[in-house]
Specification:
The protein has about 350 residues and is an alpha/beta fold. The protein contains 15 helices and eleven strands. GO terms for molecular function: deoxyhypusine synthase activity.
Length: about 350
């Protein structure tokens, strides 16, 4: 094929499968990039030797995508660690606590909503009581003895996941949150900006009451670098799946500069990069930065750029299609349970760093 893949138009039949839709009808432009992303995910990323990070930005969990798209990946061993905005983790537990969110038109009277104590996220509505009672749940949980110390966000989210899962079971709700699923399957969840969400706001409020919970962001930087270092040093590969962009995107990708530039350890960069975004690259923002640009920072292995793709498609459109495509092909892997191995991984990174320093001394 001297020019690439031949485009052969044919009518869309009834009862079309997701696999056939992607493979046979996503022929060009961002449809073709989504097809390419599906192929990279299923043929390369979701392989046993690859350690897979998922980053989550944008108001995705209020749409239900936490349970519908992220949790199936966790349960099938297809995501090994997560970096999420605190907002996505927070809004996901509304469903766990039995609260209702509603889809509506974005053309609403916001002043009338405000007067009725109704919260709007574009075309999603819910009562302010949902926030207040979710906050109350979090504050009841985070005064428990196991929270009374300084810890990384992975540990904080793991402990929260235990309580959220217990609430789901007690209430009998037909929902598993990202926190709950990650707790059960040993998937560590980090938040790159822990104070920038209602989760962080509640931690801050409890500090005013003398609560001892503090979030250790330096530990998060080192633990995430340790996960990537182990993936590569053990002969495996590292992949990053990016929903949106923002701070979680950089926090996942900066693991490689942390290893190479800051710690001085030999490494080449992440192997696979798949992003779903609406951010343009020409504004210079991190969200729109391409894999090629990330390569100049050491974030992406130059040899692996062909295994990187950016789909300029809303995550709420593209990601469910990609997940459905992978699951329809039977994608499944053994759990890596990285949460349980955090201390050992950090010890290995620390040893490598200290050895490098002694050689340079």
């Amino acid at each position: 094929m001297p020019y690439g893949r031949k485009i052969t138009p044919k009518p869309i039949p009834p009862h079309l499968t997701v696999q056939a839709l992607v493979d046979d009808y996503f022929t060009a432009y961002n449809a073709a990039r989504l097809r390419e992303a599906c192929h990279i995910l299923t043929q390369k990323v979701f392989q046993p030797e690859v350690t897979v990070a998922l980053t989550i930005t944008g108001a995705l969990t209020p749409t239900g995508m936490g349970y519908s798209a992220v949790v199936p990946l966790i349960e099938n061993g297809l995501v090994d660690w997560i970096i999420s905005t605190g907002a996505n983790l927070y809004h996901d537990i509304h469903f766990s606590l039995g609260f209702e969110l509603f889809n509506t038109t974005p053309n609403t009277d916001d002043l009338a909503l405000r007067e009725q104590h109704i919260i709007r996220i574009y075309d999603i509505l819910f009562d302010q009581r949902v926030l207040l009672e979710s906050d109350a749940f979090l504050r009841r949980v985070m005064v428990a003895p196991e929270f009374q110390r300084r810890m990384g966000t992975a540990e904080m989210h793991y402990l929260l996941g235990k309580y959220v899962r217990a609430a789901e079971d007690e209430l009998g709700v037909a929902h598993r949150s990202i926190l709950s699923a990650a707790y059960a399957h040993g998937v560590p969840i980090y938040t790159s900006s822990p104070g920038d969400s209602t989760l962080g706001m509640n931690v801050a409020a409890l500090r005013l009451d003398g609560n001892a919970l503090q979030m250790d962001v330096e530990l998060d930087v080192n633990e995430t670098a340790a996960i990537v270092y182990e993936a590569k040093a053990s002969g495996g590969r590292s992949a990053v799946i990016i929903l949106g962009g923002g701070s979680p995107k950089n926090f996942a990708l900066q693991t490689e500069p942390q290893i190479q530039e800051i710690l001085g350890l030999p490494e080449a960069g992440h192997d696979y990069f798949v992003q779903f975004t609406d951010a343009r690259p020409d504004t210079g923002g991190l969200s729109g930065a391409t894999p090629s640009e990330a390569m100049t920072w050491g974030k992406i292995d130059p040899e692996q750029l062909p295994n990187s793709v950016v789909c300029y498609v809303d995550s709420t459109v593209a990601f469910p299609i990609a997940v459905a495509y992978a699951l329809s092909l039977g994608a499944k892997r053994p759990l890596k349970r990285l949460y349980d191995r955090r201390e050992a991984l950090l010890a290995r990174l620390t040893e490598a760093y200290q050895q490098h320093k002694s050689m340079d001394a």
